[in-house]
Write a structure and sequence with these properties.
With 171 residues, the protein is mostly helical. It has helices spanning 3-31, 36-50, 57-71, 79-98, 101-104, 110-122, 128-163, 167-170. The N and C termini lie far apart (51 Å).
Length: 171
């Protein structure tokens, strides 16, 4: 193995271990009040951005870190990764919908709703700013029933993508 190849492998391992350690720190920040000033800012950012989904996001980061360590330069972002992301986004939208009635009557603007749900996410509720970003747009464009139908479809699509099993085979 050439020196350049070994150096490349080491760089992948360093990046992978760094991502894993960052995820561990994110979890520590989410669950502990003893994570320092940076930990508090990390907690506020993740809860505000992803709401209750912030407990799932570090899992994606850990998986990516492990892939970098073990697969090195063979890593490929495949359909299962995208299916997991679609599933996570759908979950954030559902968490947004669960709290939607709180701002529904206020007829807020889109960015006002995102800010509101960012602050709601910090309180450990809803899908955070990301859930509001998509959920509020969907509700305004397609209504509540249409949004539920779209999110249900996204769940089914993500499961089909992840399992790679045809829905015709299931039926």
């Amino acid at each position: 193995m050439s020196g350049k190849r070994k150096e490349s492998d080491i760089n992948y391992e360093i990046a992978g271990v760094s991502l894993i350690l960052a995820s561990v720190y994110i979890y520590i920040s989410l669950f502990s009040s003893n994570s320092g000033i940076v930990g508090e800012k990390v907690r506020l950012f993740f809860l505000g951005t992803f709401g209750l989904g912030s407990y799932i996001v570090p899992i994606l980061i850990i998986i990516l870190g492990l892939a970098l360590v073990y697969r090195k330069n063979e890593i490929r972002i495949n359909i299962k990764f995208f299916s997991f992301c679609i599933f996570l986004l759908s979950t954030l939208i559902v968490l947004f919908l669960a709290n939607y009635t709180e701002i529904e009557n206020a007829d807020a603007k889109w960015l006002d709703a995102v800010r509101y749900y960012f602050s709601l996410g910090i309180l450990n509720a809803g899908g955070g700013a990301v859930g509001a970003l998509f959920g509020y747009a969907f509700v305004r464009l397609f209504g509540m029933i249409g949004t539920i139908a779209i999110v249900s479809s996204l769940y089914i699509i993500s499961i089909l993508m992840f399992t790679e099993v045809s829905s015709l085979r299931i039926l």
